[in-house]
Amino acid sequence: MANSHKTSAFTLILLSQCAILFLGLVLTYWLSPIHSEPTLDESIAIGYGVVLAIVTLIIFVAVYRLGGNFSAQLLIDIRRVTGLFIGYSWWQLLVVSCLAGVGEELLFRAFLQGWLTNYWGVGWAILVASIVFGVLHYLSFAYFVSAFLMSIAFGLGYYLSGSLLMVIVWHGFYDLIALVVMVKYPSLISANK
To answer: Does residue 139 lie in a domain region?
Structure first.
């Protein structure tokens, strides 16, 4: 029974991520087409995305290990989220991470940030897209703040690089290593907790 529950939970996660991807593609295509050519070569964009994901994970590990109420609440929230993925295989974690990186960045960066930039300018676009991103990831105030700050970083990265690919890799690879660490090696995050 537990295996069928995991299978149906994985199917639900896949369907929700595919829906976000589809929505991002449709809205970007119709309402906010990407006008500029990327300023980074694809291999450089991928490399930067991987490096930024690793740096982001290091920052979050430092926050967790510093302690305090904020990190304690954030760790509780992260454990709640990663609890959904306990027992998943590496390929399942990879698929979910890739879909989240592609779908959410298409929706929040390519569409929402791009569309809002046309009306309000890039600063307000990044801010509003990040608030929406944080609200849609809300589990607690700490989790909202973390998602909001990550979205600010993704938004600035997209704006400064002009590379949606870089931000997709950054987001997807961060999700992958964060999930793998939390699901397969949780002691790396909370050695003293």
So the answer is: yes
- Give domain status of residue 36, yes or no: yes
- CA 84 from chain center: how many Å? 16
Residue 89 included in any domain: yes
- Split into its structural domains, the chain has a count of 1
Supply the pLDDT for residue 52: 98
- The whole-number pLDDT of residue 193 equals 44
Cβ contacts of 94-98, under 8 Å, gap ≥ 24: 94/176, 95/14, 96/10, 96/13, 96/14, 96/17, 96/175, 96/179, 97/172, 97/173, 97/175, 97/176, 97/179, 98/172, 98/176
Q: How confident is the model at residue 32 (pLDDT cuts 50, 70, 90)?
A: low
Q: Is 193 part of any domain?
A: no
- 61 pLDDT band, cuts 50/70/90, is confident
